[in-house]
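Appendix C: a fully annotated inverse folding record. The material below is reproduced so that readers can follow the format used throughout the book. The structure is listed first as tokens, followed by the designed sequence.
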């Protein structure tokens, strides 16, 4: 599976890691599978793209669709954070595009940040100590 995730309930955090070639179908499946779960509502999110070797996105319109879907799935009663770790140029650029598009959607309650390193992302999420 190109996106593996785990839920760290004691930290109210979802940690997802991409591997190999990532497609838009993989990302949409992750979004709907994880964020339709009631037990993670309002949790922060860490998406690590460090091990992604290739991203097969057919168009920037798919990034726009993902941002819309994500904002639509946000819990309105609380705010949370999403940190994307994207050391590679293309992944970083797509992450920034997603951040901008998500920020423009009035339904979005997640603050998104895109970072080159895991340490920066963890600082943004206010996570200290090792992740289990």
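Designed amino acids, in order:
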């Amino acid at each position: 599976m190109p996106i593996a995730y785990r839920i760290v309930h004691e930290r109210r955090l979802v940690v997802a890691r991409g591997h190999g070639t990532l497609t838009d179908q993989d990302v949409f499946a992750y979004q709907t599978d994880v964020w339709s779960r009631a037990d993670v509502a309002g949790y922060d999110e860490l998406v690590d793209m460090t091990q992604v070797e290739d991203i097969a996105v057919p168009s920037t319109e798919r990034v726009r669709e993902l941002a819309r879907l994500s904002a639509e799935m946000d819990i309105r009663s609380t705010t949370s954070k999403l940190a994307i770790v994207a050391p590679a140029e293309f992944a970083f650029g797509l992450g920034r595009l997603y951040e901008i598009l998500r920020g423009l959607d009035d339904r979005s309650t997640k603050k998104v940040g895109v970072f080159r390193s895991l340490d920066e992302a963890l600082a943004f999420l206010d996570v200290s100590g090792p992740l289990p």
